[in-house]
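Morning. Coffee machine broken again, so started the prediction first thing and wrote up yesterday's gels while waiting. Chain of 349 residues, entered below exactly as on the submission form.
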Amino acid sequence: MTIRTLFYYSLLFIPTVSFSLSAKQLNLLMWEDTLSTRVINQWQKETGITLNITHFDSNDDRDILLSGNQNLPFDILVLDNISTNVFAELGKLSEITKIKNRKHHDKFWLEACGEFGQPYFWGSVGVVYRTDKVKNPPKTWAEFIRPPPELSGHIGLLNDTTDSFLPFLLSRGISPHTDNAVALKQTYQAMRRFNQHVLTYQYPLTFMNQESNAQELFLAMAYSGDQHLLNQQSGKDIWRFVALSQQPQLWLDCLTINKKSAKQALAKRFISYVSSPNISATNATEIKAATTNRSARKLLPGWYLNDALLSAETENILVRQMEQVLSAENISLRAKILSQLLIDHETQY
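Came back before lunch.
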């Protein structure tokens, strides 16, 4: 099931699974391809507990779903660090500081996820590009938003109230978290001009999976690690990732537990399981994403440790590189801008 399907049924959701069957499964909401098949199979073999996974491809869509529904059927939720702390304050998450394997994670990431989240994977925001189509990939965000003619109509931009604005704000030396209405309205004009170059506002992995014109996507905003999944989808090693900044904006995913879940102990057991060094190392190796688990790094293969995107040290990270909380007014203005851009984009196509 995808989150779009769940949106349709969320208000009508009535559990139809018997208690005995339900007790033998955990329901997870997470990004696609962020839990390795090997780990899933090993957990299910060892415990007899099935993992029922629903995927999302937009932080905003996920947060709207969680905000508007009180009885969603998820036990474990993968949230970014900002949403983790916001939903914790709203009383929607369970406190998990006593989970056994929490100690293996870096202090920096533990503090970012807070008492209601367990650090999982982290990375940077940048672009992916096809090496067979893009001979001179952009080196800066300023270059990205001024593409050469041959890339026009082949570019993907994210639909996100923070990340979509990032190229246009950073290229002007403005914080991507700014709440300056004048700066955002000026940014809107730049985004309108860029709209003519945009093929899609879908998350690249979703677009490549679902759209008939997927082969027309050459360059797109994305998250570090997406290049590996795109290469798997295409069956060719043609996708590369670049951060476009010396101090790139970072993302952090946290494992959290729905406070309304009836399986609190089992959910904590699962989070502890995937946070054990050996399971965390297996997961990171297969997913090819940067783990927050310091103990797991001792078990990782050489190719992983030699990849700068995967093995960067926390000590080199600045707090301002992390996503920050936006005010309700800020989010509202950004959402209106994105909505108008999507309308304009649909019109031009």
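The chain is about 40% helix and 15% strand. Going to sketch it on the whiteboard this afternoon.
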